[in-house]
Amino acid sequence: MADNLPSEFDVVVVGTGLPESIIAAACARSGQRVLHVDSRNYYGGNWASFSFSGLLSWIKENQQKTDLSDECEDWRKLILEDEEAIPLSSKDKTIQHVEDFCFGDQDSAEGVEEAGALPKLPVFGAPAAQGESPGPEKESPAAEGIPPGSQQSPAAEGIPPGSQQSPAAEGIPPGSQQSPAAEGIPPGSQQSPAAEGISPGSEKENPAVESPGEEPQSPEAEQALGTEAARAAAGDGAGAAPGTGAAPSTAAGDSAPQPAKTEAEPSENAAQEPKRITYSQIVREGRRFNIDLVSKLLYSRGLLIDLLIKSNVSRYAEFKNATRVLAFREGKVEQVPCSRADVFNSRQLTMVEKRMLMKFLTFCLDYEQHPEEYQDYENSTFAQFLQTRKLTPSLQHFILHSIAMVSETESSTLEGLQATKKFLQCLGRYGNTPFLFPLYGQGEIPQCFCRLCAVFGGIYCLRHAVRCLVLDRASGRCKAIVDHFGQRISANYFIVEDSYLSESTCTNVCYRQISRAVLITDQSVLNTDSEQQVSILTVPPLEPARAAVCVIELCSSTMTCMKDTYLVHLTCPSTKTAREDLEPVVQKLFNLNTEKETENEELEKPRVLWAVYFNMRDSSGVEKSSYAGLPSNVYVCSGPDSALGNDCAVKQAETIFREMFPTEEFCPPPPNPEDIIYDEDEIEPEESGLNNSPEAKPETSAEESSSEGLQVVTAPLEAFSGRKLLRLLFLVMMMMLRAI
Length: 740
Known about the structure:
The protein is 23% helix and 15% strand. It is an alpha+beta fold.
């Protein structure tokens, strides 16, 4: 039970964001005893993904800013005389200025339920003032004895959103949707990461607190990363639609009431007026949406992709290549040629411009070898350097805003050259653009690392608040935490997400803000013959002293939105509220007019059906010394930053891990089950018919052996004594496969 956890661990991690999840996985993989807790009822924190109704619940929670009541009000009595308590915050203050709008056909969604939604059940932890539990829309921890949670309506009082499941105890991913991992799970089922023996068809289960079993054998990581989903089934969601009345609901796999379009329609059909999507249809198909709180893409040769491959976590997710890079110039959206083939096939550039562009891009690939070309401009901005390269204005615009994607006024020449080189080096690894996007949303990535941690013994508890850190005055180190049940849990190291720190701890910290907007639209910003496009667009500042806006448009094949709609994310560093920062860009690109009679120019733009704006705290780059009174064995992880990639989170996770365990390898590949050496008291592999000699092993390619780097490890079978029967079954199956 979660109110009776083990009292000692090596590492306690508070918060399930991306950096914390990577650290937890690395620690568990190196043999540390890990406890990973989160006061929220979903994984990912500000890195999470929600279904549509789950997002509505999240919006309501952050607009109301209700605080959960203390379940252990006398926790201070647990602090001894030679100890000091560092209180943690029970309020998440990282989200501000949340505003949502419906621009679509506002038919009544009263009584409309999500397809496949389960009946609402009472859940755990009701505040006394409301008399209703702020329970999860998904599962609650099994350790707390909570029955599988029902999907709650966002209209219910005080219900925080939750759209994810817990990490697997038997290698099942903690996905907010059904996991895209190649585990033989049908897309329509929501696989639970609960204890073994639970059927994969159940929609929600409780996260187990027992240590999970061994890691199953993985496919080749590079192939796993290149896989694209061919499923048409919907992703999992969180919650029912607003409204209390009962209404007929379709099955989880049913499509929207309107006729579905094919994925690639003829061009003449693309020119037709798009189908009218109503708000009730969005609510009904809300489980098909997986809406990210933070919008990012993965560079195909970035640090996160390298870590996914190295640790073999890539098996737990599937990715789709971003299909095009766009530019916004002179009020029009254009496609940017990236590869050599794109450059010479482009009709937007003259032959002279094509040669200019190829010459400059070739220089950027090895600019370090030609310092004489740029050293006179090291103190200049990259935009000023481009003007000296005899490039036309259109080429300068493409390079600055769509390839380097750097600030026109703040980025130096070296920063621009480095960004351009990184863009070019990532081309061609998995597609014509440098970017990958995880199917079912960015919220899958933290959960993939949570799964790895769970497989190697990590214990997970959601909706498990931590009241304080206990500091030993003599040594000046943190020795324990006190949770909301009043239990003291000791550990050697503590990882805390920035949002959990109290105001007194963060007094001297100066935070930045990120402006975010999420739109649901009825068509793409740049229509082509194919509707299934994943696009990235950088809109230059519309006014002085404003930042450029990064726009990422996702289609339904990314499993993030329903058919005939697009999910659009807008991000920029904040100067004002999110709506003030981003609405001018939205008006330039989209039609916000809800009236039927609009100008022809507006009719050509995609129509916004629904939108939300909010500001998110950017705690990246904050030095540990800025936090007041933190012991040396307490490490702080930041939330998402405004950058396009995830390099900051990966660097931070690796830095913290190496400070704690300098002699351990950071996220090594998991062992291959075939390479495990068994103890003498267990069945010998030869007796079971499985020969471990080098001659009997299947041949591996040079690429696989070099990228995987798997080594034979010694793993006592007693550690998995409860699963001996499953292991024997696995060995017999492997023997039969080899015989075939």
